[in-house]
């Protein structure tokens, strides 16, 4: 199977059925990520957070969607904490401060679409 030569920063095979949660393993005490697609128009990235791990508050200039593949997370957007479980998603609006924390270890798919500003 050919690799996605048009996608920088990825080694995910093209035109092949894959189970997303299996593309990334948990690591004790860490947050790990794997780029699936990295283009000028947007990115798709898998993340695995060990329990208690997170990303500190930050902003992004584009809307982003977080979809939980496994586990439980607290996503705080503009000071509002949201509890997400497996199969749930949230959209993080552009330029709004947000942070993520693993209530239980979790895996997520982050989809960010870049648009002209």
From TrEMBL:
Coiled-coil intervals: none
Superkingdom to which the source organism belongs: Bacteria
UniProt signal peptide: none
Domain Cupin type-2: 46-112
InterPro entries per UniProt: Cupin_2 (IPR013096), RmlC-like_jellyroll (IPR014710), RmlC_Cupin_sf (IPR011051)
Protein known as: Cupin
């Amino acid at each position: 199977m050919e690799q996605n030569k048009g996608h920088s920063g990825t080694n995910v095979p093209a035109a092949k059925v894959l189970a997303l949660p299996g593309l990334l393993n948990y690591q004790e005490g860490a947050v790990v990520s794997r780029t699936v697609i990295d283009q000028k128009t947007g990115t798709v990235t898998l993340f695995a957070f060990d329990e208690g791990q997170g990303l500190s508050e930050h902003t992004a200039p584009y809307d982003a969607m977080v979809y939980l593949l496994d586990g439980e997370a607290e996503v705080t957007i503009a000071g509002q904490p949201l509890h997400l479980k497996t199969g749930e998603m949230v959209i993080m609006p552009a330029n709004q401060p947000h942070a993520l924390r693993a209530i239980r270890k979790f895996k997520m798919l982050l989809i960010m679409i870049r648009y002209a500003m």
